[in-house]
Structure formats: structure tokens, C-alpha cells
Please model this.
Amino acid sequence: MKRFLLLALTAGLLSPIAANSETWWLVIKAAEGTKGRSYSWKIPTTSEAECNAANAKVVARENWKNWTKISQQSISGICLKGK
Model:
């Protein structure tokens, strides 16, 4: 029974599906220039295309409706390939 369990775990780790799984991380930084405050977020996505689409939405200033004085703030994002 122990051999079967070890074989099943090893096969799962070496399977092509496990090797092809990847995560793209959208890393966002927002800063309030006059107040010196900054915020950052990490958001996992499943593909580079999904990450880039989310990044385009995030950095669009018109989507940040609740922040006042948006001209004094900077918002940026980058997509990074993770493990």
C-alpha cells in the first residue's frame, strides 16, 4: 500500500499537466503624490492575456471614481510570470 501511494504521488508530480501549469501575477502600485502614501496589490491570473487585460482596466484613470484629485496620483501595473 505504501508503494502504491508513493508511486501515485510521484506520478502526480511528474505529470505534464503539473509541469505546464503557470500563474501570471498582476502587480499594481498606486501612489498619492501629495500625501506620500502608496498602495500595492498582487493579483493572480491564469494567463498572460488575462493579466494584460486586467492591467489595462486597472491603469485606466476613469475606473478610479472614488479617488479625489486623481491628477495627483499615479497608478501602474506590471504582469509577471510566476510558478
